[in-house]
Write a structure and sequence with these properties.
With 419 residues, this protein is mainly β. The chain folds into 2 domains: 107 residues, Immunoglobulin-like (Sandwich); 303 residues, Beta-galactosidase, Chain A, domain 5, CATH 2.70.98. The protein has 2 helices and 29 strands. This is DUF4861 domain-containing protein. It comes from Niabella pedocola. Pfam families: DUF4861.
Amino acid sequence: MKGFFLTIAVAVGVVVSAQTKTIEVINPSAMERKDELVVLKRTWIKRKLPALKEGQYLLVTDKKVPQLVQFDDLDGDGIWDEAVLLLNLAPKQKRVLSVAAGDRPAAIKAVVRAYVRQKHRLPDNSFGDNVVTDTMPYNNIPTDFSKQQLPPYLTEGPAWENDKVGFRKYFDIRNANDIWGKRVSNMVLDEVGAHPGNSYHNLSDWGMDILKVGKSLGAGALALRTKVNGKDSLIRFGRNVQQVVYRQLSSGPLRSVFEIQYKNWQYLLDAMPINVTEQISIWGGQYFFENKVTFSNLPANASLVTGTIDFYSKQEHKINRSGIAGLYTYDQQSENKDQLGLGILTAASDVKGWGHISAQNTDVTNVFTLDMKVQAGRPMVYRYYVGWEVTDNAFATQQGFEKMITAEAEKFAKPLVIR
């Protein structure tokens, strides 16, 4: 399969402002950091570089070498809000970058390293162009594959990937996340699932669907824990929501971002509806996706729950170090019957507890859970990690996956300093 390529702007005719400033990007940790996401917010850059005008772009150089920069308009107003780039940093390194305003982005050809898409099935059973907004039918039920070969959406809903791993979300009442294990670095999810004769449950040159989801939350999907008749109850997202709206915010080449809005979720029949948004990001070089979950209003004493499967691994390992907490499992738990590590990390101050649901008579089952504190208007941030031995032999042992997740906890605890 061919990779996606994108040429950023053109090679000539870029008008650069005479004003040039410097910014510092500092690695505060004692470990090497590869493909670290650097986010330069427009409001912050404007203070550093007053010459930047509406309609202009940011030109970033490192010792006169142009850097690939992606410009994301996250609020949809037609003006970029964040300029992002990926940097490698040595332990404790400080990189000094020069920034200037230009009428076009720097001309750099780049391999796409992050991608998100949502595609609808057409009457001829092909799939149409990527859609940037979509609304799920009310209480949309899963596809019955005994009656039809292809679902209404390619791979049953939005899919996102980078050069290491891919994911999908079921755009129906299950609202679970699944994992694409990858053997290649190029973007493949426009082709996966498009032809019923090529089952993504079988190992292919690109990889395969490696997760059994069932009635679990799969790979870090969401549920709400609240009281029902005085007892704790876990309610999955997706059912009895007036509108579930998908919106693509950015799609590569470095970072992809989308959001799912749950508008007027009647999570209990006699309760006030609530509104929730999850904003999912993935960027090149990483083995995780990041989710920012925001409640506009919130039931009393409720908590946000995410989790990972327990079908093949019956022991979870808790993490709580350097202000970061979470859990991971490691076992022969891929659908290819080989080694797979799965993990979740978030701020320790936001963790309410850990749990395990194995009962078969509940709406959500077969899941190791992480309960998180939430408050209206404040994003709750967590990351979900995947280490499949076929992607990287470093994950062929539990020690290899533990090394990665431990390093990720330190990096999560010590974000880059930008000044």
